[in-house]
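stage 2 :: seqdesign
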């Protein structure tokens, strides 16, 4: 294998996806999430110069990782140092695991071999340290699974199963099935009794795929039980709080969707239905997101935002939006409401037009941003989702503007870095490339422009961490 790159397939792989499966149930009322609609899912013809530009920048940063942090979790490209994400002193080569399927779709095959060889020879999860369950599932289980689905190398599945088995006590030791937040990978000791909702639900894709690949339902069953235990405790408005303890008691009274730390709880209801065909997940998505869209949408100056509400009374308690919520635009589209997804995407585009990069937080009534920019992928994620659904050049243009702003403000000699303040000019640079940048930002951008032959745009499905869980070819 080499880093030689085949020409992108000229043919457009387009199929009419009937999204009626998600449709009908919540269409009443205008703000329902699922409309009986069909959309052409495909890539459109490649925009090769832009795809190449993205791939070159990925490779430049990957070389920075190899130079300063090979075998470590994450790179600090300015100082030329490295650090661990999960546990100090216990590297798991996180950036390599996160990058596997990106290397695959970019056809960087010699780099992919380097990473898989390192994983085969060096990666062990027999670690006497607490690992964060949610992060380990989306990054490590998901990364190894997508690596397996791309390369078919069996040891990647073996290692995915190994870490999943070590994480499973977080679910099985809970009285309700709502997971503890931390597990000691060697001893199985659990800790952390109050997960936010994203940490409760963001596992059914990885665990569902693992169950399908191994024939053992215990992974999927644990994930679904956690969802069921939480959704059973919804309010009479069909809204949820933010944090719930392992005994099933709410620890706050605010529904903050689609912001973190609840964001991907909802993403995985739709994704779990789309990938695994589970009808309960579809019905839960429609019920909960229908209520969110009916009660929490706040239209300000023609823009769509989501206010925070008391989940029992529906009373407004906040008007903030996290940058991470930008993924919601694509989710709405995938689940059948392209029109609302487009509107919400436009709100985020207004933030980009004002600041260049999206700051961490936005006070949306005045469109005032605050904070840095952690090289996050959510806007590019939605641009990709909406582009695939519509093939509208609008979303390719938006993705290109996002890429150009990132290149202008966050590029350093050996890669890319977070910035500490995204509201000033120039933006003060930090010294850190999060591993998810290799998994998400650059994959979404590349797939948006490339018409990549190794990705099936008509059936593809990516996890919350940008892992290809269906559609590798
Ligand atoms: C990623 O780890 C995942 O997208 C997760 O769901 C939330 N945020 C980060 C990137 O911003």
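stage 2 :: out
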């Amino acid at each position: 294998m080499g880093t030689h790159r085949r020409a992108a397939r000229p043919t457009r792989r387009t199929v009419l996806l009937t999204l009626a499966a998600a449709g009908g149930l919540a269409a009443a009322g205008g703000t329902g999430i699922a409309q009986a609609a069909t959309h052409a899912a495909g890539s459109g013809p490649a925009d090769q110069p832009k795809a190449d530009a993205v791939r070159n920048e990925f490779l430049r940063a990957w070389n920075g990782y190899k130079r300063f942090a090979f075998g470590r979790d994450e790179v600090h490209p300015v100082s030329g140092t490295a650090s661990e994400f999960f546990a100090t002193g216990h590297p798991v080569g996180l950036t390599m695991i996160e990058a596997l399927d990106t290397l695959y779709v970019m056809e960087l095959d010699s780099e992919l071999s380097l990473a898989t060889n390192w994983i085969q020879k060096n990666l062990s999860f027999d670690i006497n340290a607490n690992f964060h369950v949610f992060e380990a599932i989306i990054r490590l289980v998901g990364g190894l699974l997508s690596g397996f689905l791309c390369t078919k190398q069996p040891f990647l599945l073996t290692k995915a199963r190994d870490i999943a088995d070590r994480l499973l006590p977080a679910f099985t030791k809970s009285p309700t099935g709502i997971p503890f937040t931390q597990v000691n990978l060697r001893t199985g000791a659990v800790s952390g009794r109050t997960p936010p909702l994203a940490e409760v639900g963001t596992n059914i894709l990885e665990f569902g795929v693992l169950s399908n690949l191994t024939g053992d339902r215990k992974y999927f069953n644990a994930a679904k039980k956690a969802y069921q235990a939480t959704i059973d405790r919804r309010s009479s408005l069909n809204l949820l709080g933010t944090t719930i303890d392992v005994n099933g008691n709410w620890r706050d009274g605010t529904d903050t969707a689609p912001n973190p730390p609840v964001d991907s709880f909802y993403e995985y209801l739709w994704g779990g239905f789309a990938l695994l065909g589970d009808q309960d997940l579809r019905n839960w998505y429609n019920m909960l997101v229908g209520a969110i869209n009916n009660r929490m949408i706040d239209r300000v100056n023609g823009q769509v935002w989501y206010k925070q509400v008391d989940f029992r009374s529906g009373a407004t308690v906040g008007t903030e939006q996290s940058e991470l919520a930008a993924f919601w635009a694509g989710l709405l589209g995938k689940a059948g409401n392209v029109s609302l997804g487009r509107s919400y995407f436009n709100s985020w585009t207004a933030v980009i037009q004002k600041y260049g990069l999206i700051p961490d937080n936005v006070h949306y009534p005045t469109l005032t941003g605050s904070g840095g920019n952690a090289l996050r992928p959510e806007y590019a994620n939605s641009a990709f989702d909406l582009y695939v659904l519509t093939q509208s050049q609008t979303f390719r243009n938006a993705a290109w503007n996002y890429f150009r702003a990132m290149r202008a403000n966050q590029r350093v000699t050996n890669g890319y870095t977070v910035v500490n303040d995204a509201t000033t000019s120039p933006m003060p640079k930090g010294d850190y490339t999060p591993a998810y940048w290799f998994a998400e930002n650059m994959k979404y951008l590349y797939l948006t422009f490339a018409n990549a032959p190794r990705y099936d745009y008509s059936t593809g499905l990516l996890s919350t961490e940008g892992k290809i869980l269906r559609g590798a070819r």
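stage 3 :: structure notes
- Residues 26-470 form a domain with the Glycosyltransferase fold (CATH 1.50.10.10).
- The chain has a mean pLDDT of 92.
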